[in-house]
Each structure stands twice: as structure tokens, then as C-alpha cells.
TrEMBL record, chain A:
Residues 173-253 form the Sulphur oxidation protein SoxZ domain. The keyword Signal applies. Keywords: Signal. Residues 1-21 form the signal peptide. The keyword Transcription regulation does not apply. SUPFAM superfamilies: E set domains. This is Sulfur-oxidizing protein SoxY. InterPro entries: Fuse-rel_SoxYZ, Ig-like_fold, Ig_E-set, SoxY, SoxY_sf, SoxZ_dom. Residues 41-147 form the Ig-like SoxY domain.
Length: 255, 312
């Protein structure tokens, strides 16, 4: 188990870190954060964790458009071991991004676009079968305002008619294929001019036998007209089933 | 209390005195002067002086082309002009609405400020947000800077300023409203930000790279003798056009290919940049920005409706 080696190394670097319940040294936080211990408690319930660069959290160094920041979470180093992936933006007013459960036939990889309110550390915590959280981190700079900017969707006449429309594509990439989806939805986060929360909060990816491939809880840090991409193994039609917090259900099939 | 004030002054005065653009006009053709900025990004070290501005001393007076990134720059430009000629400034021509080209307008409110109608509209919509971001990027250099909208609407055609006939072209590849100016007397082409040279082009308001490529062809076909890019060194050969064409075509193809392969934005911004663009300043930084501005249009062309509403 290579993480033990890296933990040992990290151990030497930061003896000051609090010892975990399981006696695991978490290593040094790779990003400057004032809120890690709070999120460790709130998101991970104070469970054992390591800062782990094998969890790649890839985002641009700065947010050109704070309402649409591309984020890629790559935990393929833990393929077959991943139970859940949680992602959040520490300094967002609504920090949670996604809770992703790759069940079967989906690689532990996800891309999504998010809103950021100010420059912030981003985190992706990957729970492996042994009960340890592996935390990937990055920093993003931003002029800010992404969470409180007026909706672009709502300025388009007739936007209500398009809710739930899904654009999609499947792109073969050697031994897996990339699945990309873009869903028309305002993803109102409740922070803009008296418009209450209205967002897609649940998504499921199913295979041609209707077996669940992945489950996702989505949160209002996800950008309007959400973009999602998955890497899936195997062929056959894939379904995406979506539900928003008003109970609307949407369904898409990608051949 | 008094000694604290003195201490404060002794600390802050040198810092204030440092904020000098030290603009040095360079004559590039008959009656024609250039204020060349660096090809860096906005920073507190350069006060946003990353832009080329210019002025033409006609018999009737001085025509100013773009006013720079701040009130302080506009004022410094005004002094630099006065050091070259006694003639009064008679008109400002703005090439487009981006902050580094128009936020010096405050120093020129005594003369007509001309721009394309689209430029005025865009500056009206985006000016305050752009100015705010400039404060964030370059800091105290911006002190007192406010958006001043153009006062005269320019249209395509030849306009006479004293002994200089200026051909105004209404183009749009960079922002949707881009003015290029060919001085028919000297052959100097003020390309605005339709031409970046040795500095990566920027795309926040571009209607599309194909529009921009068409504009490059239009400009190159003019009877120019010297090209003044919006950013980067002047040139008397067609190299800036060739570099623009090469770079725009590469960017376009990169995003087409990425969309066809289902690449996501976070992957696109990591794309390798060809060796031949190594000399172009800020290419990685601007690739990150351009992917954010333009890639959504490319990716949608490679996706189709897959929701159940379409299948019923």
C-alpha cells in the first residue's frame, strides 16, 4: 500500500498534525486553508483522511468566468476501490458541489462546472473501501461573484420551456468512452434577487439493463445549465435520470 | 500623532511617486507617434500599461488613438503629447471598448471622443465591471478612474483631419465592434486589437474566430506600409498578419478537435502549445481564457438532443 509510504514521508514533514483515530498521519495541507478542520468535521465527520496528490483535482489557476469554472476530479489511481467522492469549494457561501458514487462500469472520474464566489481552495475527498478519505486539493483565483451573479438562463425568453432538455454525446476513447451531458436548468441557488432554490439535486446513470452505474447528489454550487462528463466502460445505451428539488424528473438516453 | 503622520507620509510618498507611467512617445512615421506598452499581463508593476496608444499631429491638431488603461495614463499621455507639439488635441478615436484602451478618456473630455456605435454600447454595458476588475489587477494606478462614454459615433469611411485622411474600417473579430484606422497619408495602419503581435490574442467578446480571420484578410489587403498592433511591436512586413492567421487557425482547430473527442474545458486548457508560438507572450494564460470564452460553442456542435422529450 503506497499511501502508507507517502504518509510516512508526510509524517516527517508535519509532526504537528493531529493524530487520526486510526493512527494515520494526514500529511501537510498542500493549499493555504483556514477552514480545513471545519470541513473535515462537517463533510467527512472527522473520519481518518490523508492529503493525497493521487486524487487529481484539476481546475484553471483562475476563474475567467466565475459562473462557469471547469473542474475535473480524477481518482482513477484508486480504480475499483472508490466508494464515494465528495467535492466542495471552501470559501463559497454554498460550498458543496457534488457527492458522486461510482457504482459499476464508471471510472472514478468526473467533470463538472461550478460557480465560485471568491478565490478559494477546492477539495475532492475520495472514500476508498478501507474507510480512508483521500483528499485532493487545488486553489483557484477569482474576481468573484459567481454565486450571486444574476442568472443568464432566466434572461432568455421562454427558458421555462427548455428545462430538462439534455444535449449529449458519447466519444470513444480507447478502452472506455467519454459521456458528456449538458442539461438546461437554471440551477437557482437561492442567493439571487429573491429567487428561491431551484436546482437539480439528484442524478443517476443507468446501463441498458437499467442497472445503476453511478449516483450523484448535486448542489447549487454547480453552474446553471449543468455540464457533466463521465468515463464509462463497456458499450450499450446509457440513461441519465435527473430530478430537481421541485420534483421534476428528466430522462435522457445516450446511444 | 504627528510623528505617526510623518512616518506614514515618509512611507507612502515614495510609493506614490513610483506611480509614473514614464510615457515616451516614439515617432514611427511622419507626424505619427507611438506610446508602446509591454506585452505583459496587467499587474501592479506596470499599472496596466500593456497597450499601444498613438497620436497623429495633423495641421489642424492632434488626433489621439486610444487613451490607455487609467485616468493617470490619460493624463500622462496628454502631457506626453504636449511635450511633442503645441497643437491642441482635436479628437480621440477609440479602437474598441476594452479597459486598457479607453479608461484614459477622463483626460480628454474637452474634445470629441469617437467610437463605433457598438463600442459605445459595449462600454456602457461592461465598462463599470471592467474598471472594477482593473482596480483589482493593477491597484492604486487606477485611483479616480471612471468610465467615460464616447461622445461621437463613428462610421466606416474616410474622414479628413487637417492634412491627414483617415480611412475608418468597421470590423468586429475581436469584440464585435472593432475600429481599424488606415492613415492614407502615411500608410500607417492602426489595427487596434484585431492584431496582437508577439502577445497572445484575447477573446472575451469575440463573435468567433472565423469572423476574426476574415478581418485579418481585410486588413492585410489594405495599402499599408506600417502595422501598429494593439499589443506588441510595430512591423513593416506582413509578419503580424501571418502570426495572427496561424494562431487563430490553431486555436480554432484545437477546439474543433477537442469537441469532436469529447474533451472537457479543464482538459482543453492543458493542451500543448506548439513550439512555433514559444515567442508569443502569455499564450497559456490566454488559452485558459479563450477556452472559457469560446469552447462552449464548439462543444455544443458535437452534442445532440438526447432527452426523452425529443424521443417521444
Amino acid at each position: 500500500m503506497t499511501w502508507r509510504a507517502s504518509c510516512l514521508l508526510a509524517c516527517c514533514l508535519s509532526l504537528g498534525q493531529a493524530a487520526q483515530a486510526a493512527g494515520i498521519e494526514s500529511g501537510k495541507d498542500p493549499v493555504p486553508s483556514v477552514m480545513w478542520s471545519f470541513y473535515h468535521k462537517q463533510m467527512l465527520g472527522d473520519a481518518p483522511f490523508v492529503f493525497d496528490e493521487r486524487v487529481k483535482l484539476l481546475a484553471p489557476p483562475f476563474a475567467e468566468d466565475a459562473r462557469q469554472v471547469p473542474v475535473e476530479i480524477d481518482a482513477r489511481a484508486f480504480k475499483g476501490e472508490v466508494v464515494r467522492i465528495l467535492a466542495w469549494a471552501e470559501l463559497n457561501p454554498l460550498p458543496k458541489i457534488v457527492d458522486f458514487e461510482p457504482v459499476s462500469g464508471v471510472l472514478p472520474w468526473l467533470s463538472v462546472r461550478i460557480r465560485v464566489e471568491q478565490a478559494t481552495p477546492l477539495r475532492a475527498a475520495v472514500l476508498t473501501r478501507d474507510g480512508l478519505w483521500h483528499v485532493g486539493s487545488t486553489l483557484i483565483d477569482a474576481a468573484g461573484g459567481g454565486c450571486t451573479a444574476p442568472s443568464v438562463v432566466r434572461t432568455q425568453p421562454g427558458w421555462e420551456e427548455h428545462i430538462g432538455e439534455v444535449l449529449g454525446g458519447r466519444y470513444p476513447r480507447g478502452d472506455f468512452s467519454r459521456l458528456r451531458l449538458q442539461v438546461a436548468h437554471p440551477m437557482d441557488n437561492g442567493m439571487v434577487s429573491g429567487i428561491p432554490e431551484f436546482f437539480i439535486n439528484h442524478a443517476e446513470l443507468r446501463d441498458s439493463n437499467n442497472q445503476v452505474m453511478a449516483r450523484l447528489e448535486l448542489f447549487p454550487a454547480v453552474s446553471e445549465n449543468p455540464n457533466l462528463a463521465f468515463d464509462i466502460e463497456g458499450a450499450g445505451q446509457t440513461r441519465l435520470v435527473l430530478r430537481d428539488n421541485s420534483g421534476n424528473e428528466f430522462d435522457a438516453s445516450i446511444p | 500623532m504627528r510623528w505617526m503622520l510623518l512616518l506614514f507620509m515618509s512611507l507612502s510618498l515614495p510609493a506614490m511617486a513610483d506611480l509614473d507611467y514614464a510615457l515616451k512617445p516614439r515617432q514611427i512615421a511622419e507626424d505619427t507617434w507611438l506610446l508602446e506598452g509591454s506585452t505583459d499581463n496587467f499587474a501592479t508593476a506596470n499599472g496596466g500599461n500593456i497597450v499601444n496608444t498613438a497620436f497623429i499631429v495633423t495641421e489642424r491638431g492632434v488626433v489621439v488613438i486610444d487613451t490607455g488603461p487609467s485616468k493617470r495614463y490619460g493624463e500622462a499621455m496628454r502631457r506626453a503629447i504636449a511635450a511633442v507639439t503645441d497643437k491642441p488635441v482635436i479628437e480621440v478615436l477609440l479602437t474598441h471598448h476594452h479597459p486598457d484602451h479607453v479608461l484614459g478618456n477622463q483626460a480628454f473630455t474637452d474634445v470629441p471622443i469617437g467610437a463605433l456605435a457598438g463600442t459605445t454600447e459595449l462600454l456602457h454595458q461592461q465598462g463599470d465591471a471592467m474598471a472594477q476588475n482593473m482596480y483589482r489587477l493593477v491597484g492604486d494606478w487606477m485611483r479616480g478612474t471612471e468610465v467615460v462614454l464616447p461622445t461621437r459615433t463613428l462610421t466606416a469611411g474616410v474622414q479628413r483631419f487637417g492634412n491627414h485622411d483617415l480611412q475608418l474600417l468597421s470590423l468586429g473579430g475581436h469584440t464585435g465592434a472593432d475600429l481599424a484606422i488606415l492613415d492614407q497619408k502615411t500608410g500607417v495602419l492602426f489595427a487596434g486589437d484585431l492584431v496582437f503581435y508577439q502577445r497572445a490574442l484575447t477573446t472575451p467578446n469575440s463573435p468567433g474566430l472565423s469572423v476574426w480571420l476574415a478581418d485579418i484578410a481585410t486588413l492585410q489587403a489594405l495599402p499599408w506600409t506600417l502595422i501598429v498592433p494593439g499589443h506588441g511591436p510595430v512591423a513593416s512586413d506582413p509578419q503580424p498578419f501571418e502570426q495572427m492567421r496561424d494562431y487563430l487557425s490553431w486555436l480554432d482547430q484545437l477546439m474543433r478537435d477537442g469537441a469532436a473527442q469529447g474533451s472537457d474545458m479543464a482538459e482543453m486548457i492543458r493542451s500543448p502549445i506548439p513550439e512555433r508560438f514559444a515567442g508569443i507572450s502569455l499564450s497559456r494564460y490566454e488559452l485558459i481564457r479563450s477556452v472559457s470564452h469560446l469552447y462552449p460553442r464548439y462543444e455544443r456542435t458535437q452534442m445532440k438532443r438526447v432527452d426523452s422529450a425529443t424521443q417521444q
